[in-house]
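#struct-help
A.M.: can someone run this one for me? Single chain, 363 residues.
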Amino acid sequence: MEKDGELRAGRSRLVFASLAGAAEDIDPARTLIVTDPEIHRLHGSLFPPCPVIEVERGERAKTLASLESLYGRFLELGLERSGCVFAIGGGTVSDLSGLAASTWMRGVDFGFAPTTLLAMVDASIGGKNGVDFRGLKNLIGTFNCPRFVRFDVGLLSTLPDRDFSSGMAEVIKHAVLASDGYLDFLEAKCPDRAAILGAPDSRARLEELVRRSVVLKARVVEADEREAGERRKLNLGHTIGHAVEAVTGIPHGYAVAAGLAAALRLSVKRYALPEEACGRVLALLSSWGLPSSLSEAISRSGELGGKPLEDSPRTRELIAQALVADKKRVGGEILFAAPFAIGEVRIVPIPVSELADFVKETP
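D.P.: on it. C-alpha cells below:
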C-alpha cells in the first residue's frame, strides 16, 4: 500500500521500473543473482554486475536438493551476513531463493525481480518462501518479506502465451476479491492477450493490471503478514487448485483456475453467490484459455504438460484425497475461501469429507 508516496508490502519496497536500473537497489559487490538459464539468456544483458547462480526452471527447482545445492553455491561464492540475494525469474526462483536467503547464516538480505505475470502479481509479494516436499506444495518454508521487489512489465513481452494465461488466473482471482471494479476493468480492457497487445496503450493497460493486483495483495499483506486471518482470503481457488495440481501436474495457474471455478460453483450452491457473478468469472477464465471446471482441467491435463488423465471416479478420488494435505486444514475441517459476491470473500470452515464429496461431483 502507499506510504509517503511509496508502495510497500510488509517491509518490501515495491518499485515499478526497468530491470536495467536494479543496481540502485543493491550493492553489486555484496550481491549474488539467482536465476534460471532461460531468463539469463533472455535478459542477462539487463542484470547488474554480480556473480550469477543458475537453478532449474519450473517446479523442479523447489526441492530440498535444489536448496542444498544453492547453499553450496553461497558457500563457494562467499556470501556473508552483510550480503544480498537478488532473485530474477519466475515464482519458483523467488520461492527457492527467498527460503535460501532467509535461512543462510540465519538470514541475509534479499530482493526480487519477477519475470512472469504469475510471479509479479503473486509469488514476489507477501514474503512466502518455500519448497515442495514429497510432491506436496510449499510444505517447507518461511514468512519473510524481501527488502525490495522491482517490477519491469517490459519483461513480459517474451513470456509464452501459456505462462501469461497462467498468471491471469491469479489476476482474475484478485478481481473476485476486489470491490473497486477490477473485474469490470479486466472484462473491458483485458479480455485476452490480443486485446492488450493490440491496443495503442498496451503497456499502460498491462502496468495497470499488475499494479492493481500488487496494490490489492500489498494491502492484505500489510494487514495480516503471517496469514492469521484476512490473508487467508488470498487462498481463493487454491484449496482445490493445489489438489488438482498435485494429481494432474498441470501448471499452477491452470490448476488455480480450476480451483477458482470449483469455489464459485460451491458458493452458488451453498452461499447464494449470484449465478450472474459466477458466469462472468467463468467466461473470463475461458477467454484466457484457462479451465473453467475440474472436468476441463483433468481432460486437458496432457495438453497442458501434465499427466494425460481421464475424468474418471478414480481421478476425482485422488484429488479428493489430496485435500487432506492442505495447510489450511484444522482437524476435520478446511478453512475455505468462499466468494459470497464479487468483492466479498469470506473464510468458512467446511468439513474435509463434504469438500471431498463436492470435488467428486462438481463439473
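A.M.: thanks! The first strand starts at residue 2 and ends at 3.
D.P.: also worth noting: The mean pLDDT is 94.
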